[in-house]
């Protein structure tokens, strides 16, 4: 089966066309990755819905419906690339933000804390309301207690999520998975008239 035009790589690293091909092939053995991967399952569910609608349109086959189906598939591929849409904390309007966009901003919030670097960031809606839960993995330096640095990262993420993105964050779960090596000390530049040796 040929790949889709403008084939996309899912956040888990799988090609969208390959995941869809496996989902349609009833003779192939179940892929443990696809069954356990949230990105793959969401992609398959979204494409299955649109595929059913496209088949119905092709059965009728009036002029222009093939172009319509192509436009619908482009929208689906764009949504797969951006990830799920998360609700913003706005009681008056139904506003949403793509998970990939919000995750990128929240990783930057973590990276702004000295001695911390975000490795991964996932956002998921809570079971009810407009709250979301942030799950982040972190690399951190050991020049200060880890709980203090994690607390600082959590505060930075919560502040930016609320003030800049308008997200209502119920919790920020942070796991330190790697150690950042300290940067070497910066030596002062030695210019003319400033000998590198000590003393007069």
List the main descriptive attributes of the protein structure presented here:
single chain, 200 residues, alpha+beta, 3-stranded mixed β-sheet, 6 helices, 44% helix
Describe the structure.
- With 200 residues, the chain is of the alpha+beta class.
- It has six helices and five strands, in the order ααααββαββαβ.
- The chain has helices at residues 16-24, 32-36, 38-60, 65-82, 99-111, 146-165, and strands at residues 85-87, 96-98, 116-125, 131-140, 168-179.
- The strands form two sheets. A three-stranded mixed beta sheet has the order 3-4-5, covered by helices on one side. A two-stranded antiparallel ribbon has the order 1-2.
- A hairpin with an 8-residue loop joins strand 1 and strand 2.
- Helix 5 crosses helix 6.
- The N and C termini lie far apart (79 Å).
- The model is unreliable at 1-6 (pLDDT under 50).
């Amino acid at each position: 089966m040929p790949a889709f035009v403008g084939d996309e790589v899912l956040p888990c690293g799988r090609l969208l066309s390959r995941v869809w091909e496996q989902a349609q092939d009833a003779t192939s053995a179940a892929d443990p990755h696809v069954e356990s991967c949230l990105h793959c399952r969401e992609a398959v569910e979204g494409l299955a819905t649109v595929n059913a609608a496209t088949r119905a349109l092709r059965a009728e086959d009036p002029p222009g419906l093939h172009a319509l189906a192509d436009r619908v598939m482009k929208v689906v591929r764009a949504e797969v690339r951006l990830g799920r849409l998360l609700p913003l904390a706005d009681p008056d309007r139904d506003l949403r933000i793509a998970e990939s966009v919000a995750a990128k901003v929240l990783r930057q919030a973590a990276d702004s804390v000295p001695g911390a670097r975000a490795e991964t960031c996932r956002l998921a809606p809570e079971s009810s309301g407009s709250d979301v839960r942030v799950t982040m993995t972190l690399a951190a330096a050991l020049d200060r207690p880890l709980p203090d640095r994690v607390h600082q990262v959590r505060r930075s993420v919560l502040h930016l999520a609320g003030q800049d993105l308008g997200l209502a964050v119920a919790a920020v779960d942070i796991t330190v998975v790697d150690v950042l090596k300290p940067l070497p000390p910066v030596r002062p530049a030695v210019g003319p008239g400033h000998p590198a040796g000590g003393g007069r």
